[in-house]
Design brief:
By secondary structure, this protein is mostly helical. It is 40% helix and 0% strand.
């Protein structure tokens, strides 16, 4: 029912890969810069020493004065 390992190996070696061009060098440089920027934003601590986990939240407000 399925293709055996030996049959698959012979079937994939018949593919012509001469038309495939390698990626340009600038692509890997750009990917490295973007990865470093992402890592820095995730690793940077705020002034309180806590790591950033999302947008800043407002502090809880005290309850409004009500009738006595």
């Amino acid at each position: 029912m399925g293709i055996g390992i030996r049959e698959r190996k012979t079937a994939t070696t018949d593919i012509d890969l001469s038309d495939i061009k390698p990626l340009p060098l600038w692509f890997f440089g750009f990917e490295g810069v973007m990865a470093a920027a992402y890592d820095l934003t995730k690793a940077w601590d705020d002034p309180t020493g806590r790591a950033h986990t999302g947008p800043a939240r407002e502090p809880a407000r005290p309850p409004l004065p009500g009738p006595p």
